[in-house]
Each structure stands twice: as structure tokens, then as C-alpha cells.
Amino acid sequence: MDTLTPKQIVQELDRYIIGQNEAKIAVAIALRNRYRRSKLSPEMREEITPKNILMKGPTGVGKTEIARRLAKIVKAPFVKVEATKFTEVGYVGRDVESIIRDLVEVSIRMVKDEKFKEVLPKATEIAERNLVDIILPIRKKAETGEKSDAELKEELLQDIRAGHLDGITIKMEVKATPKPIQLNPNAHGGEIDMGGIIGNIFGGGAQKKVRTLTVKQAMDFMINQESEKMVDQDAIITEALRRAEQDGVVFLDEIDKVAAKSGREQGHDVSREGVQRDILPIVEGCTVQTKHGTIRTDFILFVAAGAFHISKMGDLIPELQGRFPIRVELNNLTEADFVRILKEPDNAVLKQYKALLGVDGVELNFTDEAIEEIAKVAYIENENNENLGARRLHAVMEHLLKEVLYDADDNETKAINVDKDFVDKHIGNALKDTNLRKYIL
Ligand SMILES: Nc1ncnc2c1ncn2[C@@H]1O[C@H](COP(=O)(O)OP(=O)(O)OP(=O)(O)O)[C@@H](O)[C@H]1O
Ligand SMILES: [Mg+2]
Known about the structure:
- The chain is an alpha/beta fold.
- The strands form four sheets. Strands 2-5-8-1-9 form a five-stranded parallel β-sheet, sandwiched between helices. Strands 3-4 form a two-stranded antiparallel ribbon.
- The chain has 17 helices and eleven strands.
- The protein folds into three domains: 6-105 and 244-329, P-loop containing nucleotide triphosphate hydrolases (Rossmann fold), CATH 3.40.50; 112-238, no CATH class; 335-436, Helicase, Ruva Protein, domain 3, CATH 1.10.8.60.
- Helix 1 (6-14) packs antiparallel against helix 2 (21-38) and helix 14 crosses helix 15 (391-400).
- The structure holds adenosine-5'-triphosphate and magnesium ion.
């Protein structure tokens, strides 16, 4: 488990979510408590169960976003599910235990990635050596000089490491390997999907097969193969089960949608309540059978979230409410928040549009005044129409930049300056309408 302090967790969340401090602090504390608990004696640990969190707040103010970001910063097994998923197609309680099984799968992938990272240097070394042996005969044919095998091997090794041969294809005998998994934990874009390749090989039966691969693909493939040999699969499963059980976090989104709305027709309410009853044992602590072994759910941290604008928290069955002792409310976003959401987060709305249009050679600039105006329009539209929270910003931006998005093409580089006039010209109507309405009233 990671050792981020609550403050560090909040700081990380701050990079993406504006405001909502109460919610951030609650999850940060809950996560830190996991870590604290893990340092206690087994007897003490057994006594301390997580204090589950219920987040309530209007639509589009960051509930799901907090969950999403949390997933990336907690180095703990994490799954997010919509509670509504279990009300589908009429029948109640569609295998709610699958949440826990998913958690175990996530945990296994995590532990496996870690173990693979550990053996990566060693596996790479072996893979390089094997690859050199495969390419050597080819190189020898092409080579007219009087170099010794050892010299050629050394040259090849350097070439492979420098990536000079990445694009070259070779034929190689590949044995079916165990499960496809992500190979190179450091892999970034453009990487081939080894899972797919291994899958194909697998599909052809378990025998050896000759395949044409680029050197890069072959390298990745062999690293994977060697890594599989080096890691202890059983140990991975054991550790993964332990981690899911002790550190697991389950985010139950849209929990309000399975709360019975007061005054609704019976049928629906029964099915919603059914889902709550199905979720209950898992949240209360039970044992779930997975194909990798059994797992207790007592120590899994549950964070539930919902808008609760139609139903209330009190509409949840009491037993379930009782299992979420920590309640946090997320606030409605203000105009000032909107300005910040437009500008500040790592994935800020304006940054997104700049990046998108950058692809077509358009340089997009916004004056501060324009940004304030955009925030104002979004805020007013939320007030006058349905309140979409920060999602409104996207709607407003699409509207504002419709022409630019339509006209931009990759033939010319140009700069577009979005100032107050630009905003007024394109989306000023919203403001005028309100002013008018105010005037009439
Ligand atoms: N406080 C915030 N700071 C930055 N971005 C935000 C904030 N709140 C919402 N957003 C952005 O608005 C969008 C919707 O937010 P999110 O999915 O978190 O809504 P939600 O609270 O889960 O709403 P719902 O109840 O409808 O599920 C996301 O793109 C998110 O990045
Ligand atoms: Mg949501």
C-alpha cells in the first residue's frame, strides 16, 4: 500500500478537481487509515474495519471524477461500478459478487505488473541474448568483413538496444505462453498489443509456430515469456488476494438510483431495494468465492456516490445507510470555480480544446476576460436551464468554438484569439436573455 499522506492525496486530487475539499479530505483520511491499520498487530487489525464514505452532491460537480482520479493515485486495487448495473433486465441482484471478483482481477494485474517490473532487467538481458542469436545468421550473410561472431554479437546487441532494428522483421519460433498480459509496464503509445499476438498464437494450439515479428515485437514477446518463467504465479495470486482483501477500494457510483423514491410504483422500488439488499452483505463483510480463491470483504473500503436529487439518503435501506458512517456533501460549483476548471486542472477544459485544435495547426488563445465570460455563461445557463454542473462548460465550449472546430484544417497555421468580443458574439445570447428576463420581471 502506498504511503501518501492525506495531504499528499488531497494535493494529487487538487490537480484535477477544483474545490470539493470536504470530499477530498474524507477519502484521503480513509485511505490513510488503511495504511495505518496495516501497521497494527493482527489482533488490532482484525478489529478495525474501514469507515465507508457516502458522497452526495448535485450532478457534474466531481463525484465520479474524484473516484477516477483516486483510482490512479491509490496504489491499491480499485474498482468502480454503477449500482444501477444490477437493476438491469428485470431480475434482481445480478451477481453483485462480481464486483469483488473484478477487484481480485484488478489486484492480480497490479501485482503481476509489479513482479514483472522487478524481473524486467533480467528478462530483458535474456531476451536480448536470444534475439542476438536469432539475428546473427542474417547479419553474417550481409557482413563481408572479417568480424568474429563475438564482435558481431556485440554490434547487434548495441543496435538492438539503440532501437536501430526495431522496424526489421524476423521469423521466429514462438511457443504458446501462458495468459496474455501487459508486457512492458513502461510501454507507452504506439506499442503493439502483445496480448493480441500471444492470443493468436494461443489460438493456433499449444504447439510451436513460426511467426514474422518485428524485432521490437519479438523483443517484447521474449521479455514477456522470460518474465512469466521468472515470476511465481502462485505467489502472485496469494499476494493479490491479500491486497484485494486488505487494501481494496470499491467505488459504488449512482447509489441514489437504487434508493426507493418516495411515492413511486411498487415494482421498481422492490427491485431497487433488492439491489441494496444484495449489496448489503458485501458491504457488511462476507466471503466471496472467486476462481482464484475466497476473499473476505470486511476490510474493503466502499465509497458510494450519488446525486440524490430525487431520492434522499434516507430512502436507502437503513442497514445500508448504517454501513456508510461518513457522509460528505459536494458543493454546487460557483462561477469562480468554473473559471478555475476552465484554466487550472492538468486536464483543464481550455487545455483540451487547445490540444485538439493544435492538431490542425490552430493556436487557440483565451483572454482572462473571455474565460470569465465563458464561466458566466455556463453558470447562467445552469441556473436557467437544467443544472449540469461542470458538464455545462463542455456544452458552452462546443457552442463557442463550433465554427473554429468546423473550419480548422491542417493546411494553414493560424492563431485564434478568443476575447470577450468573440465570446459575446458567439454565445452572448444567453446573457442577453437573462438581462432581458430580469428587465421584464
Ligand atoms: N470540481 C471539479 N473540478 C474540475 N472538474 C470537474 C469538477 N466537477 C466536475 N468536473 C468535470 O465535469 C465532468 C463531470 O463530472 P463528474 O463525472 O465528476 O460528475 P458527477 O459529480 O459524478 O455527476 P453525476 O451525479 O451526474 O454522476 C467531468 O468531466 C469532470 O472533469
Ligand atoms: Mg457521476
